Every structure is written in structure tokens, then in C-alpha cells.
Amino acid sequence: MDLTYIGHATLLLQLGEATFLTDPNFDDALGRFAIGERLRRVAPPGIALAALPRLDGVLVTHAHLDHLSLASLAAIPREVPVVAPPSVARWLVGRGFAQVRALAPGGTVELAGVAVHAEAATHVGSRYGVDRWRAETNMYLLESGAGSVFFAGDTGLTADTHTLADRVCHAAGRPLDVALLPIGHAPWWKLRSFRAGHLTYADALDLFERLRARWMVPYHWGTFNHLSAGAHDAIDRLRALLPTHARREQVRILEPGERWTVN
């Protein structure tokens, strides 16, 4: 199994002969409202959109601008199946993306010999705040003979966030190989509301333990500046915390464009 960090929540996952792309966003900025350096991309995609290999599937967790660029999705060949939460899938099909398939929490679809399992995330994924009808957010777990990988999308940490790995992997006596987990940082005045739907760098380490994964790869950093946090705030704090963490050797930080073969 090979993993490449492209940027933010966009990763290339290669499980044997099957290749998947997560939450595609290759944009220069988050939407049309980037002012100065705010919301702008600070590093180019680790793989250019035009240089992507042949894909067997695209995983969309929710409709937020940073996780779903319509321009990026439109540039991917239309024969590539796209999996998304039901409300997001209906919206995308209505916009002409006929290749999108709905996958509800608790459901499974097989693509190119890989089982893609879905569970609900703790995150309000509506695109603009007034469109709660498409607020559904998925987490995914991919599993094949080449390995297993959990992709959290965006989620807050709850007592149930890890149960997808329990249901799919641990109940069958198999380990979860890799946990792909978002990391974030928020100022003190925003921290409580932020954690209701996101993982801080410390929360991600906590979820890593609960998932009982062999490896953790952090994402959601080094790509976009946000209004209340810089692109590298979370990763800088994670790097400072890791030396005292018991499983620091199993946390693999990938730079944009870096490819890693999981052993």
C-alpha cells in the first residue's frame, strides 16, 4: 500500500492495483473570497491535477469548499466513480456529475476489488451554512488484501468515532493498518466550537490510540491559510508534542508530494 500527501485533505491511496483520491481540491484559494493571504494556498499540490495516475475511485466526505472543489472534480475523467454521502451525491448528480454514487453511513461499496465502508462523522458539512440539507459527512475505511486505511475527512472526537475500525477490522481479528487523520489548531476563544466538529492535533493522537491503528498519517495542514489559523500551526504543535508521545515512531508526517510505502 502506497500513500501520497497531495495537500490539505487530498491524498492518493494505492492499495495493490487500485488507486483512490480523497476529497479533491487543487485550487489556488478557498472560494472567491480570499483576501490577501487569507484562505490562499501556501504550497502547490504535491501532484498536479493533470499528472494524476488512472483512478479507480474518488472519496468525497462532505461539501465544504476545502474538501470538495467542483473545478477539481470536473477535471477528473467522468468514468471514475465518486462516492459521497447521499445528500451530497444527489446535489452533485443534479450538477451533472452522473458518476457519483451515494454511500450512507453503515454502507459498503466495492470498487476495483476494494471494500469501501462508510460511517457518519461528527461534522456539519453543509457548504455555506444555510444549506443544512447537504450537511451529511462521511468517514471511510478502505480494505483489501493489500491493507486497510481509515480516512476521517473532518470529524470531532466522540465516544463512537473509532467504531468503524472496530466493526470492520477488529471484530474480524484484523488490524487497521493506517489512520489518516486531520489535525487542526484554533485560538482559545474558538477552541470549544472548533472541537465540536474537528480534531485538534492532540485529539488526532487520541483517536489514533482508539482506532488501534499501526500507523497514523496527519493531513489538513500545510496547504491553506484560514481566518483564525495559519497553514502550519497544527503541524508545528504536533511536532512539538510528538517527542513525549508513546507511539511517536508510528506517526508518519508526509510532506506535500511525498509518497510512502506502508510496510
Q: What is this structure's SSE topology?
A:
Elements lengths: L1 E6 L2 E6 L2 E5 L34 E3 L10 H6 L6 E3 L1 H9 L5 E3 L5 E4 L2 E7 L17 E7 L2 E5 L11 H6 L7 E7 L8 H5 L5 H11 L1 E7 L13 H9 L17 E3 L2
Parallel strand pairs: 3-4, 4-5, 5-6, 10-11, 11-12
Antiparallel strand pairs: 1-2, 1-13, 2-3, 7-8, 8-9, 9-10
Tell me which CATH architecture applies here.
Answer: 4-Layer Sandwich
Output the number of helix runs.
6
Low-confidence stretches: none
CATH superfamily: Ribonuclease Z/Hydroxyacylglutathione hydrolase-like
Provide the CATH topology. Answer: Metallo-beta-lactamase, Chain A
Tell me, what's the shape?
globular
Helix/strand class:
alpha/beta
Largest sheet: 7 strands, mixed
- The H-and-E topology, N to C, reads as EEEEHEHEEEEEHEHHEHE
DSSP summary, beta strand count: 13
Give a description of the structure.
This protein has 263 residues and is α/β, with parallel strands linked by helices. It has one domain (2-257): 4-Layer Sandwich (Metallo-beta-lactamase, Chain A), CATH 3.60.15. Helices cover 17% and strands 25% of the residues. The chain has 6 helices and 13 strands. Strands 6-5-4-3-2-1-13 form a 7-stranded mixed beta sheet, with helices on one face. A 6-stranded mixed beta sheet has the order 7-8-9-10-11-12. Strand 1 and strand 2 form a beta hairpin. The longest helix has 11 residues, at 201-211. It is globular and about 50 Å long. The termini are close together. The mean pLDDT is 95.
